[in-house]
Write a sequence for this structure.
């Protein structure tokens, strides 16, 4: 009977910990996706260059909420204990939700709200292509203009951001899991 009680208490603790794991991961991922989207929108209007080094910020920004989620789970719900696999899984969950929210928002906003802004950006890039590509043949210039139009469609942008975030996600999760893990250390074991 005692063993059954201990097993039941362990199961309740496990379910309690799982609930907080999912809650922290999903909520942090949603807010992270919104913040990354706002940064992308801000950089889209701030930078008029076709390529700017500041766009790296969009890919590095999810690291902060992923660290926050691991710290929050460890300190608030884990009594100061977080194992490597828990930190890695939480970082993956938070990053995936963040990438999903960001790509859905990019698609929605550029499809329904900011259509002229995306068309203006495509026109700027096409004008830059014309001024820089004086030696290109007419057919090559036409193909590159069509490529710019295809790449700056809302669907292409959202898929591009989602895939780029997913490619970087395992690396980020590994780094976070290394630094966020903490085992229970008892000073009386010395």
């Amino acid at each position: 009977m005692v063993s059954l009680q201990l097993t039941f208490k362990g199961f309740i603790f496990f379910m309690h910990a799982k609930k907080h794991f999912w809650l922290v991961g999903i909520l942090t991922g949603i807010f992270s996706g919104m913040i990354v989207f706002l940064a992308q929108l801000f950089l889209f209007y701030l930078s008029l260059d076709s390529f700017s080094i500041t766009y790296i910020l969009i890919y590095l920004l999810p690291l902060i909420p992923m660290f926050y989620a691991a710290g929050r789970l460890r300190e608030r719900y884990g009594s100061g204990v977080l194992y490597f696999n828990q930190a890695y899984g939480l970082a993956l969950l938070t990053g995936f939700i963040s990438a999903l929210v960001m790509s859905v928002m990019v698609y929605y906003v550029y499809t329904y709200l900011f259509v002229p802004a995306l068309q203006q950006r495509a026109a700027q890039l096409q004008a830059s292509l014309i001024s820089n590509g004086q030696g290109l043949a007419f057919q090559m210039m036409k193909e590159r203009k069509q490529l710019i139009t295809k790449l700056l469609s809302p669907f292409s942008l959202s898929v591009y951001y989602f895939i780029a975030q997913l490619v970087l996600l395992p690396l980020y999760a590994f780094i976070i899991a290394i630094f966020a893990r903490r085992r229970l250390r008892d000073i009386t074991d010395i």
Residues 2-189 form one domain.
